[in-house]
Amino acid sequence: MQRQSNRILAINPASTSTKIGVFDNDILIMEKMIRHTTEDLSKFSSINDQYLFRKNTILEALDEEGMNVSNLAAVCGRGGLLRPIEGGTYEVNSGMLEDLRVGYSGQHASNLGGIIAFEIADALNIPAFIVDPVVVDELEPLARVSGFSSIKRKSIFHALNQKAVARRCAEKRGRRYEEVNLIVAHMGNGITVGAHHNGRVIDVNNGLHGDGPFSPERAGTVPTGDLVELCFSGHYSHQEIIKKLVRQSGLFAYLGTSDVVKVEQRIVSGDKKAELIYHAMAYQIAREIGAISAVLKGQVDAIILTGGLAYGESLVELISERVSWIADVEIQPGENELQALAEGAARVLNGEERAKVYPF
Ligand SMILES: Nc1ncnc2c1ncn2[C@@H]1O[C@H](COP(=O)(O)OP(=O)(O)O)[C@@H](O)[C@H]1O
Ligand SMILES: CCCC(=O)OP(=O)(O)O
């Protein structure tokens, strides 16, 4: 099908940076990472309060790059901690804006993606979208049962990148995403391993404050009794324990850094503790992939390793040697999120998909 030219601005707000990209449909024209200093962000008491500051830095960056916003056909932001929704491209509406502002399912910089996209698009009278936010929830009923009746398992994961790499993998095999079974391990600051069955992520660990492998920053699954003891030890407030589990666990807690490149350098120079912990992270990722292969009854077309950590050759090797008996292992390093946002918006602008309405 012949596609018309659609200029799309994609916005991905992360904790200390805002990444932006301008695309012609899914072809990248310009990309920029705007870094925010601690001093800049410490002026704001909440993530939501940063919206105007971040929006202005985006408009300034576009101006510096000579990008004329009046040529845009749509703006697409990374969606945040909304109500659980199925995957897809959603037009930003007033209900979504309200949920993003209060942080319906919690606080995360990605909550700003939809808000900033809307503000820029509204002034230009063009649509604003979000694509596959972190709350995409396509879990099977079986996967929701935790074993502790007061707690349900939740789907919070790197849906945007997981679905984009899964689509690409299916396409390479001459199949549609809706026709394949894939295991995708996104390995970034958090790590999530999803079972993609015929285009739906039917099981995945909650990579923010849930379960799964430990990661550069997160604790992942920890022994429950010991965690309860720690919570009631009187040493930590509620906020402190959450921060410890989400931002100060994993590699950071054991090795004092969450920078995987530095950890790899320490291993090469003979640091045995760094080696043990790094190998343990690979071991836990492989164990999660093995567990989720049972969800797919062993019918797995491919295992995809993606995210920033997939640039690390030794990590990829350590995981592959434990899981390559399950299926072919494909490496798609990086987080590909701006590209995935543009692709999601382009599918709607070109009439290949209809924008979904939040909450559906
Ligand atoms: N060349 C590399 N080799 C190994 N790890 C890397 C490399 N580049 C980045 N990383 C790691 O990737 C992580 C960030 O991954 P990314 O997918 O961008 O993050 P997130 O999913 O959290 O947004 C960081 O922990 C960083 O140390
Ligand atoms: C697990 C989804 C939240 C998320 O995006 O985490 P990181 O970017 O910190 O890996």
UniProtKB/TrEMBL annotation:
Keywords: ATP-binding, Cytoplasm, Kinase, Nucleotide-binding, Transferase. The keyword tRNA-binding does not apply. CDD domains: ASKHA_NBD_BK. GO terms for molecular function: kinase activity. The keyword Nucleotide-binding applies. PROSITE patterns: ACETATE_KINASE_2. It is an enzyme of class 2 (transferase). It catalyses: butanoate + ATP = butanoyl phosphate + ADP. It is found in: Cytoplasm. Its EC number is 2.7.2.7. Pfam families: Acetate_kinase. InterPro entries: Aliphatic_acid_kin_short-chain, Aliphatic_acid_kinase_CS, ATPase_NBD, Butyrate_kin. PANTHER family: ACETATE KINASE (PTHR21060), BUTYRATE KINASE 2-RELATED (PTHR21060:SF3). Belongs to the acetokinase family. This is Probable butyrate kinase. The lineage of its organism: Bacteria, Bacillati, Bacillota, Bacilli, Bacillales.
